[in-house]
Structure to design on (380 residues):
């Protein structure tokens, strides 16, 4: 049970987005553009940024959801383990290591990012738009994690829930299903 | 100069929103709904939440911009001073004190908000939607502050800049001016 009364029984962010569709719509749209829109970063790379930030914000719902999405996109347990605990050694490109380092700083505080962090990313091949999107994805998950935990939303324990959610995030993405998430949710999220 | 190349010379968030209008549009829309949409919280009260969070995230651009907006909406220096340094003693309603306390916790980490913080807000008259919007406004400014500082955007020193910006945020709000902010910006932000 969330701290406030919702118009549905959906867990985590899904219940919040359905509860207030007017604010839910732009949040979904921004996420769809950043995580599924055209980009030279792969969906797996963008989901890794989301997962790292959620983990560092100690948001268990979002961490479980996006770690499951990383797995659904082909990421291994070893990759996740390294990204969480030793991102400098993660089995990703040098560019991604530099971008993950920026995301980790954004998670703490925007002003921790320095010109030299940006130079490092650029030197390993990151473009301005990749740097931009890394910062904005990290900032967006600082919003999500606080929204989900600040309202005390319900968090399922069953790993199968996160696998079903991840499968939806891989095949459909972050847009609202046309027939309504609440109804779909009855099947998806129970 | 921001860390990345922008398509304009606008400072702070304004340059970022113009630089990538596809992500800028949903960010503006969400802000307009939360800070200027229909609500039982006044615009001043909602701007106070934004200002407190920006201050605690040490984002000088956003703090200056929203403190100026609080002033433009009739808030005093004493009010701002108390909200920054002694929010429990701020000259606001008991309900707003409870909501500001929730916002301050959201700024740190979503999971810091407890059922007893929510109960306190409710006991002082806060509705579920007011609690929801407080959490989401605080979370949104955790995004903004990181976006603005994480990309090292330019921050004007001149207080007159923030007064002009605040005047626009009070009269027009957060939507993109129809004739383009970039052009308007040439007048507004120089």
């Amino acid at each position: 049970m969330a701290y406030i009364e919702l118009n549905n029984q959906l867990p985590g962010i899904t219940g919040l987005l359905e509860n207030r569709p007017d604010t839910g719509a732009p949040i979904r749209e921004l996420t769809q553009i950043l995580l599924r829109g055209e980009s030279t970063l792969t969906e797996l790379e963008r989901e890794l940024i989301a997962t790292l930030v959620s983990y560092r914000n100690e948001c268990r719902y979002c961490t479980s959801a996006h770690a499951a999405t990383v797995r659904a996109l082909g990421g291994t347990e070893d990759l996740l383990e390294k990204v969480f605990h030793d991102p400098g050694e993660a089995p990703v490109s040098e560019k991604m290591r530099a971008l993950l380092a920026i995301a980790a700083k954004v998670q703490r505080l925007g002003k921790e990012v320095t010109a030299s962090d940006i130079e490092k990313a650029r030197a390993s091949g990151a473009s301005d738009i990749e740097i931009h999107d890394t910062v904005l994805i990290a900032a967006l998950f600082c919003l999500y994690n606080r929204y989900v935990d600040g309202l005390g939303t319900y968090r399922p324990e069953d790993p199968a829930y996160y696998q079903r959610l991840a499968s939806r995030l891989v095949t459909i993405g972050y847009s609202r299903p046309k027939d309504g998430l609440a109804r779909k949710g009855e099947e998806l999220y129970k």
